[in-house]
Amino acid sequence: NTWEIITPNNRTNTEIPASDGANEVFGVRVNPKTRDVWCTGGCYGIWKVIPDNKMTLNISGIQSDSTYKAPSNFKIVADVGQNNGAVSAIEFYNGDIKIGEVNNAPFEFNWNEVSYGDYQIYAKVTDSEGNVAFSNVKLAKVRASAVPQVSIVSPANNAVFDFNSTIEIIANASDPDGTITKVEFFNGTEKLGEDTDSAYTFSWTNVLDGTYQITAKATDNTNQTVTSEPVTVSVRAEGGNLIYFEDFNDGLAQDWAPSSGNWAVTDSQYYQSSTEGIFNSIYNGSTFADFTFSAKIKSEWDNNFGLIFNYQNDQNYYLLELDASPSTAKLKRIKGGAETVLKETTYNGSGANVYYLVEVINNGKQTTIKVDGDIIMGNIPTTEFIYGKIGLYAWWNKIWYDDISVVATTDIPVEEYVNTCKNQPYFGLTETGKYVRKGENENGVVTLFITNLTVYPSFEISENVEICQGEDYLGWTESGTNQLELLTTSGCDSVVVIHLFVNEIPQKPEIIAAGDTLTCSVSGNYFWYRNDSLMQSHNTKSIVIEESGNYKVQVSNQKGCSSEFSEPVFVVKTSAVSNYLVDIFNIYPNPVSGSHFYVESYIPNFRSGKISIYNAEGKCIYAEKTVQNKINIETSKLQNRGTYLVVFETDNFVQTRKVIFI
């Protein structure tokens, strides 16, 4: 339809294409197929060209066509790509039934306690501009019995094979409550073969170059199935080289990330259409080393274009910059954001709107440049960045790129962190540092290794150790020199030489009792104990008895070695002066085997006293006051047969004697 004329003027009508933003208009006609706009000036109108809906949605967390044990918990993760507007909502479905919704990242939904049944699980995304996309459908079965288990043990994930190889696939499969009836092997959705006998293997022969996802599917005796996690393998192109190739025929620039400018796939080419500025697009799908990087390039204007290689970040990379007219070429190093021209030359060019085949050949040390097969720069030193990503470059210019390829003679660089010990070189490297080396990985593929090496020292230590007689040090009990080989915390061998000295212990002491004084028979440092408790303030050779109890003593020498404990001595102390030498009472019969025995006092004019009997543990089991010179005590008071201590106390005397009950 024709828009209404708002403010007429005398400007000439002009047909122009419309772009986003503010535009001065008089009247407007829009062709819905070409989106060309016919307009004249006079006022300002604002419109926006809505891009096509290319939004994608994938879900993960459930292996399709697999069986799970009831009840099951699923964590469904949604991944949105190429959306025009912000994600408004992601809805999760089982068939026609909505089971959940999330509105904010991360787009994850937990579907818990899923019971027995067959399920068709998918998701729907809606963005802020009303665009809608649906995910793939995951088929899952939930069964009551335990599901089988399966995993691929060979080849390893990300393994690389030569062209036309035979790949041996080996799977481990088991069933907790049954048996495995078969294991099927797949490349993507293509079935390669199956095996019904353990171990489960399949030989995939004559595999051509490319990247493949291998899975194994196990079936048990109840027809429950489970699919393994995929294993990705790559096969080199004929000639043994790894290849990245992109012709944009699928309409996508997979893993290409523009840092500026307007980059889009147009007419099966990668087209940069902005004209005012410097624009880059970096391939984030891989890094490369020892490669040939080539592309077909057409410049619409007589300005600059080129290729980026060994890209580390936006401050560090190499740039080949070509000018369409005049036909000049510069090889530049950008380091820390600063630009240095390494080489400048000319090439045989025909100006703008002509395709050129441009090649960068880099081995990590030197770079050679070709244009349409002619070498324009040869073996230019480029050792600052020896590997990295690739990219495309436009300087105030509309540029077309096609048939981008990287042919690498080594696998993708591997950064490794290695610890080693002194005198144990790692590929000839003996000092801590960062190194670059070329070698074969675990699959025999020539690879560039970035080695971060840490070299730990080894030690030889000598130490003197003293122990006491009867002790051991690491199992050694005698004086002498011993050698011990140990590993440090960093895993390096170290030698410890032990000079061991075994010191004698003092002889076992005896306690000599004299009145109210106890004396140790051995000299040294004294440790007196009463009732097995250390007497803190008693550290002399002799001590005065202050309380009744079981006394013992231990002696240590200057080396800190301690003797055995003395035999214990039981002492009863009263307020009166103790006399251990005068017999103030007698026990008979002793030993005693009958029903009773007698305790008789020898003290003249005896008036009163107390008799106490203690067992071998020092516990008083009988006590009685008496005014008689002779007392009859029944043996039933003694509890068991054995040795007992009888204590006889008066106001002026105290004495102990043993009685033996047999």
From TrEMBL:
Give start and end of each Secretion system C-terminal sorting domain.
Answer: 587-660
Recorded hits in InterPro entries, A to Z, give:
Ig-like_fold (IPR013783), Secre_tail (IPR026444)
Q: What is this protein called?
A: T9SS type A sorting domain-containing protein
One Pfam family linked to the record: Por_Secre_tail
Query: From what organism does this protein derive?
Result: Mariniphaga anaerophila
